[in-house]
Specification:
Largest sheet: 2 strands, antiparallel
Oligomer: single chain
Strand order of the largest sheet: 1-2
Order of helices and strands: HHHHHHHHHHHHHEEHH
Distance between the termini: 8 Å
């Protein structure tokens, strides 16, 4: 989100987080990973498990920075509410698009209509991107806005074409509905309305209430399938709830019986957003810079300790987003943001931040592009060494780092290349003052 006076530390932390997200999501070989770049198998927490809650925390921080002045001025709440809803729906829609891209579960890939699908989908993507580029301040002239209007018509026409094709050729019966962007959209929706309609005190009570409620549900409520309350991978209440509401067809394909971004575990994820929202309120207050950074670091240390204490009875677990994990990660998020805030916004040490700013101001674009590129590298096939078709990404990996570096370092080198490639695309936008936002 853009604000009149950007908080540089927030951009820097957002950029660090996106770089980390791309790094851990794109290894050359999932069988060769350094331990810190792997998620905890179940209970526990690794640096990789920091990435997603960092992002949700920053979504929360940005809400009062973006909406605070409008709320204080008494701007039309209906208009603000519609913006919150539309932004949430766009983020969720982008997540669903990413889940379906590029095949859209096409029933018959030998049909000539599959090529038509690929063509109109590509045109739609380019048109939407161009429309957002032309929405920048440097293009606010009559001529450019007329062109933007025609690009919008093209985008809608292509989307309509995909909808028509979908009735005959798309099959979403096994599409995964939850996901990273879907959870971000839901958390933004809940936190946006909490910020608009309530006070910080009510928000704090709501966050604590959600964490205690989730703890009680997961540890006290018997699972209807006949299991006692438990935190095991497939038989906990959150897994049962997701299977019941979404069915196994629409859950994470690697598990089928549960989903790491499931519905019930989104409740404590909202508390992660609330922690960020309260931090944003603190940062935009009239306190001095040193009061702000002292408060952030002190509360961060306290929450970090409380999370570790709570871990003794309700284990840290990213996959079911346990309440102890929320508190623990809120503490780490505050410590990181407070440190960067002190270095950048207070001390003015900005010489090192440009690479992360490049990512931070176009975080959503970077995430989407990395997902699209990653999928295309898997679905575009070339002939392998044995003549069998393999993904072009696997072919490139095998012909670049494999055999030159050790397996684990080759896998890391590929991931680093992906980070650099996506950064390059973001740098082009940054250099031209183009910020893609919703």
């Amino acid at each position: 989100m853009q604000t009149a006076n950007r908080l540089l530390s927030l951009d820097v932390m957002r950029g660090l987080t996106i770089a980390g997200m791309i790094l851990v999501n794109n290894p050359g070989d999932w069988g060769n990973l350094y331990a810190p770049l792997e998620h905890a198998e179940w209970h526990g927490c690794t640096p990789t498990d920091w990435v997603f809650p960092f992002f949700l925390f920053m979504v929360g921080v940005a809400i009062p920075l973006a909406l605070g002045k409008r709320k204080e001025r008494g701007d039309d709440q209906g208009q603000i509410s519609r913006k919150i809803v539309s932004r949430s729906l766009i983020i969720i829609g982008l997540g669903l698009f990413l889940a379906a891209h590029p095949m859209f579960y096409f029933r018959d890939k030998t049909s000539p209509w599959f090529l038509v699908h690929l063509v109109i989908m590509s045109i739609a993507m380019l048109a939407i991107f161009t429309r957002e580029v032309l929405n920048q301040s440097q293009f606010q002239t009559v001529v450019w806005q007329q062109r933007r209007k025609w690009v919008s018509y093209l985008a809608w026409a292509m989307i309509a074409g995909m909808v028509v094709l979908g009735f005959f050729y798309y099959d979403f019966s096994h599409m995964r509905f939850p996901g990273v962007l879907q959870r971000i959209g839901l958390v933004y929706l809940a936190c946006g309305f909490l910020f608009l309609k309530t006070t910080p005190k009510v928000q704090l009570i709501t966050g604590i209430g959600l964490l205690l409620l989730y703890w009680a549900l997961m540890t006290l409520v018997p699972v209807p399938d006949g299991y006692a309350p438990n935190l095991d991978m497939e038989t906990n209440l959150a897994a049962w709830f997701d299977r019941t509401i979404l069915t196994t067809n629409h859950l994470w394909a690697a598990a089928k019986t549960w989903d790491p971004e499931g519905l019930l575990s989104t409740l404590p994820a909202i508390a992660t957003g609330i922690a960020g929202m309260l931090t944003g309120e603190w940062l935009r207050s009239n306190r001095t810079d040193y009061e702000k950074v002292s408060g952030i670091l002190a509360v961060g240390a306290l929450l970090f300790a409380l999370g570790l204490i709570w871990n003794e009875v309700f284990p840290l677990n990213k996959k079911i987003w346990t309440s102890s994990y929320v508190v623990y990660m809120a503490g780490i998020s505050l410590l990181f943001l407070g440190t960067i805030y002190w270095l950048v916004d207070i001390k003015g040490w900005k010489g090192w931040i440009k690479p992360f700013q490049v990512y931070g101001v176009n975080a959503l674009f970077a995430f989407l592009l990395s997902g699209i590129v990653g999928r295309l590298l898997g679905v575009i096939k070339v002939a392998g060494a044995d003549g069998e078709p393999i993904g072009i990404g696997s072919w490139m990996y095998q012909h670049s780092f494999v055999g030159i570096l050790s397996p684990i370092n080759a896998s890391l080198a590929w991931a680093i290349c992906m980070v650099v490639f996506i950064w390059g695309a973001c740098w082009i936008l940054y250099r031209n003052r183009i910020y893609i936002k919703v």
